[in-house]
Design brief:
The chain is an alpha+beta fold. It has one domain. Helix content is 44%, strand content 27%. Strands 1-2-3 form a 3-stranded antiparallel beta sheet, covered by helices on one side. Helix 1 crosses helix 2. Keywords: Membrane, Transmembrane, Transmembrane helix. This is DUF4845 domain-containing protein.
Length: 126
């Protein structure tokens, strides 16, 4: 009685290994940027918890950049111009919107756009 072989061949295994390695390398490049964005969101929530309380935009920017330092956000990632406050109908919203370019392979880069906003309780100063 002949036995029928089952399983994966060496060539099939190598193809699967290359595909898994490619996606693993992609994850190694992209995951740190998303973790950094989670730090930005946490720092923004800390600022929102404190409220505006008559503080100016420059003061809020300075405090946010200081808090992002504790969240391991790279200094070159977010510029002060990326931090804005939108005012609509007397309510203030803190908005951080930035792009991050991550080199991948040779001349291929990933361009990621991050955008988050939180409501700021209280009144802003000038």
């Amino acid at each position: 009685m002949k036995s029928k072989q089952s399983g994966i061949t060496l060539i099939g295994f190598l193809i699967i290994l290359v595909v898994v390695a490619f996606f693993g390398f992609m994850a190694m490049k992209l995951v740190p940027s998303y973790i950094e964005f989670l730090g930005v969101k946490k720092a923004m929530n800390q600022i929102a918890t404190g409220g505006a309380n008559g503080r100016s935009l420059d003061t809020i920017r300075r405090d946010l950049i200081f808090k992002m330092g504790f969240q391991y956000v790279d200094d070159a990632t977010i510029q002060p111009s990326d931090i804005t406050i939108k005012r609509t109908n007397g309510a203030s919203t803190l908005v951080v919107s930035y792009d991050k370019q991550v080199p991948f392979v040779a001349n291929i880069d990933f361009l990621m756009h991050f955008d988050n906003s939180v409501a700021l309780p209280g009144n802003l100063g000038e």
